[in-house]
């Protein structure tokens, strides 16, 4: 297993607010001269730098409300302990392909991942004594956004989920450790959050309905942080959030609900580093019945082998952006085309919100790229203030949600009710 960065999100975290756990308002940027709050990492805050938190070397200090965060990824497990708003321990590793190849499904990895978590906690002298444990949400039945207690029905649905992904282990791992130390286990804003307005579900073909599958955790967390930086509640604003990573989702948030969003997992919206996005349906049908491809290969073209990697043979955005900035073709044209599809999707969500959004938030790993932001911003900055909040911020977002649950500032929901 290869250790990961001491920052479990592998990107700068947004700094906490002096008055709120949501975020500190930093500089203000909007192309064209108008300003809007921009949340930026703080050099003095433990959330704003990867070296600010204690990664190892002893038990977590007492005095706060210790929260364990568990974020299982396809090839990694990321862990953190927060006390209130402050990360005091972070750890994790990328698991060797040879170790994972012995498992035929994600659920079979449960014991392997649990051993890893216990070994990491024990190695750094951290006792299993927490006020809450929160895990990454899985592919459950469609549900409203929010914080959910891990109950028996949720555990059963995670074990027998219709779609196989290691994120289904998050709630199960959290539940076992929480039961051991007598504290609640939570998940928050899983990718299956579904708050779409009815009119957004129609496709033009009866029997095919648009589905809400997107980066709900980070998208909602960034919207909340933006709202707090303006002195408002998430439920009082409207924003567009473009999360740009391996997949790209562009969501329209109105008064605390995501009323429309592209399906970032299964072939809708912008193309991305590994996903094809919306494809001309007639051409896709002809390809499907050409006799040259089976279903598995077609699906891989849509999700996994589509987008930039299909055109350029790599999904390394740092390399692609550097080559594009140097004017190297076809990198420049293909990357600009991807950003164009993002801009078009943002424009569609502008219509969904009747042009009443307070800001367009650009987040996810691609938002770290100066080249990408400089190419995308002029295409959309006439719509609303553009706010760049880079990174996936999953660990910080989960910690924030668990803290809100403990403080009672956000209602904890029961799954299945």
What does the model show?
With 417 residues, this protein is an alpha/beta fold. Helix content is 31%, strand content 17%. It has helices spanning 97-100, 110-123, 152-159, 169-181, 216-229, 281-288, 295-302, 308-312, 317-325, 331-352, 370-380, 394-407, and strands at residues 2-3, 66-72, 76-83, 86-94, 132-135, 147-149, 185-188, 238-244, 248-254, 257-261, 359-364, 386-390, 412-414. Strands 1-4-3-2-5-7-6-13 form an eight-stranded mixed β-sheet, with helices on both faces. Strand 8 (238-244) and strand 9 (248-254) form a beta hairpin. The longest helix has 22 residues, at 331-352. The chain is globular, with a radius of gyration of 21 Å. The two termini are 40 Å apart. The model is unreliable at 5-62 (pLDDT under 50).
**Number of helices, where a helix is a run of at least 4 consecutive DSSP H or I residues:** 12
**Most strands sheet:** 8 strands, mixed
Give the helix proportion (percent range): 25-40%
Radius of gyration: 21 Å
| Unreliable stretches | 5-62
Shape estimate: globular
Put the structure in a nutshell.
This protein has 417 residues and is of the alpha/beta class. The protein has 12 helices and 13 strands.
């Amino acid at each position: 297993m290869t250790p990961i960065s001491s920052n479990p999100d592998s990107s700068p975290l947004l700094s906490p607010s002096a008055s709120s756990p949501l975020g500190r308002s930093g500089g203000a940027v909007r192309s064209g001269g108008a300003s809007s709050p921009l949340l930026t990492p703080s050099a003095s805050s433990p959330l704003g730098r990867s070296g600010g938190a204690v990664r190892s070397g002893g038990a977590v200090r007492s005095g706060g409300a210790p929260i364990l965060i568990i974020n299982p990824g396809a090839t990694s497990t990321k862990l953190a302990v927060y006390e209130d708003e402050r990360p005091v321990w972070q750890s994790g590793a990328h698991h060797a392909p040879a170790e994972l190849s012995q498992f035929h499904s994600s659920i079979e990895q449960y014991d392997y991942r649990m051993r890893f978590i216990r070994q990491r906690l024990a190695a750094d002298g951290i006792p299993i004594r927490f006020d809450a444990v929160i895990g990454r949400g899985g592919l459950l039945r469609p549900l409203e956004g929010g914080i959910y207690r891990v109950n028996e029905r949720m555990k059963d649905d995670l074990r027998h989920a219709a779609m196989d992904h290691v994120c289904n282990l998050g709630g199960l791992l959290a539940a076992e450790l929480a039961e051991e130390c007598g504290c609640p286990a939570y998940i928050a804003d899983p990718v299956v959050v579904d708050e779409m307005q009815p009119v957004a579900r129609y496709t033009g073909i009866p029997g095919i309905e648009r589905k809400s599958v997107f980066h709900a955790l980070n998208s909602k967390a960034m919207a909340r942080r933006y709202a707090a930086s303006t002195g408002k509640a998430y439920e009082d604003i409207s924003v567009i959030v473009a999360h740009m990573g391996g997949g790209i989702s562009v969501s329209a948030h109105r008064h605390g609900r995501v009323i429309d969003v592209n399906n970032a997992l299964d072939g809708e919206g912008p193309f991305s580093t590994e996903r094809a996005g919306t494809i001309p349906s007639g051409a896709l049908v002809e390809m499907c019945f050409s006799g040259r491809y089976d279903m598995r290969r077609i699906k891989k073209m849509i999700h996994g082998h589509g987008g930039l990697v299909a055109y350029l043979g790599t999904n390394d955005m740092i390399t692609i952006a550097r080559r594009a900035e140097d004017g190297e073709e076809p990198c420049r044209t293909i990357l600009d085309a991807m950003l164009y599809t993002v801009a078009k999707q943002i424009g569609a969500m502008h219509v969904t919100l009747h042009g009443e959004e307070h800001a367009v938030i650009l987040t996810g790993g691609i938002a770290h790229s100066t080249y990408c932001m400089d190419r995308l911003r002029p295409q959309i900055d006439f719509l609303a203030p553009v706010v760049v909040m880079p990174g996936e911020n999953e660990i910080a977002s989960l910690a924030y949600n668990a803290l809100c649950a403990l403080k009672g500032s956000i209602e904890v929901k029961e799954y299945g009710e």
